[in-house]
Amino acid sequence: MKTFARSLVLVGLLIAAVGSFAVAADKPAVAPPNYDESKIPAYTLPDLLVMQDGTKVTDAETWRTKRRPEVLKLFETYMYGRTVAGRSEKMTFEVLESADDALGGKAIRKQVRVKFTGKDDGPGMDLLIYAPKSAASKPAPAFVMLNFQGNHTTTTDPAVRLGMTYDRRTGKAAQADEKTRGAAKSRWPFEMIVERGYAVATAYYGDIDPDFNDFSNGIHPLYYKPGQTHPAPDEWGAIGAWAWGLSRALDCLQSDKLIDGKKVAVVGHSRLGKTSLWAGAQDERFAIVISNDSGCGGAALSRRVIGESVHRINTSFPHWFCDNFKKYNANEGELPLDQHMLVALAAPRPVYVASAEQDKWADPKGEYLSAYHAGVVYRLLGKPALESPDMPAVNQPVMTTVGYHIRTGKHDVTDFDWQRYMDFADKHLGKP
Ligand code: GTR
Fold first, then answer.
1. 222-226 long-range contacts, Cβ below 8 Å, gap at least 24?
2. Number of structural domains the chain divides into
3. Is 7 a catalytic residue?
């Protein structure tokens, strides 16, 4: 009997050992980041102009009706997840506050609550809008961009409301207070923007979905099937949710007389730059698509595996992409897509990719190459694109229908970036 018990224990230990080995094998450590161009694995990018079944795409019509939907579906299935909901018929916009003497008399300010399902206590976001005074008689073109810490951090304007914010590390909610008012204002040169005739709108991304690996808050639960507690492997993660929020912001702007709804550019920085590309890909009402320092999962080619890798990003931020994307951890070569295809989904609309010289984590060269390789689709659609496979020098923007710059400095949004976005909008939408 004793021997039998002992062998049972031994078998148990063996199972446990094999089990823990399997777990360890299941989750190999993330490789340290590579920054050496000579160590980039050999790779071939998927051809934008060849269908999954091998058919060549040689005309605009086939791109539009066959290949574009196919590419969009690849990103839905394997990367960002399917956006499971559109606009609710019950959505409402409530103006919470407005003034026509904002920013020292240069701007009209509006704060609008977008109630996603029309409910006062339901999910929603507060959109802060600054428009040039001229918008009262002539609707202004606009930029829309989500912010990271709350609308009150984008400006020292004391009239901007203090909302709820969510800690990125713990997910904990807290009422914002005066201490952080204006904390991110260097990224939001509102006066400079309205002086050039553009309106600008922003909302806090946490209003849409707190940036935390928890799918019980934000908008996801609104659209769960009975019993569901987590998105399915091909359903939207946080980036998908934020992109959806940008479309709801556009719904609001298009209903506003101050805004020229056909001239709204979507912009985003970093994780929200990944988001602006995905929003622009799905929602063709955005007139221009701009990503600032968007890096891995944004404009940067995944196959270069330089700086941040797919494995790294999926491990640090398991909630950003859909679960299917995790199959490509340390396995980028098997991806049926790469990020040049995301940039191409903006076509034929103007698209702008921006990098920063010191932002090696985001792989500036990989960001450039995506924009460059998207060019085949632009040319097919009769639009000019980036001509050189080599990046331009720092602070030397290139602006065809595809635009690009790498500026000096670090991972950030600066006046230089904004000035180029306005130059680009002037060029493609006409000077306001
Ligand atoms: C980093 C992340 C990047 C980028 C950045 C940001 O930690 O690795 O992909 O998104 O955060 O959003 O600030």
1. 222/85, 222/116, 222/117, 222/123, 223/84, 223/85
2. 1
3. no
CA of 169 to the centre of ligand 1 (A): 13
Query: pLDDT tens digits, residue range 220-255?
Result: 999 999 999 999 999 999 999 999 999 999 999 999
Residue 106 counted as domain residue:
no
Is residue 240 assigned to a domain?
Answer: yes
Q: Which long-range contacts (CB under 8 A, 24 or more apart) does 169-176 make?
A: 169/212, 170/212, 171/210, 171/212, 171/214, 171/217, 173/210, 176/150, 176/152
20 is catalytic: no
* 1 CA from centroid of ligand 1 (Å): 59
pLDDT tens track for 27-42? 789 999 999 999 999 9
- Which residue's entry shows tokens 């810490």? 149
For a pocket test of ligand 1, which of 145, 355, 361, 411 has the largest count of ligand atoms closer than 8 A to its C-beta?
361
**Ligand 1 pocket: which of 308, 310, 319, 360 to mutate (most atoms <8 Å of CB)?**
308
Pocket of ligand 1 (CB under 6 A): 270-271, 295-296, 308, 313, 316
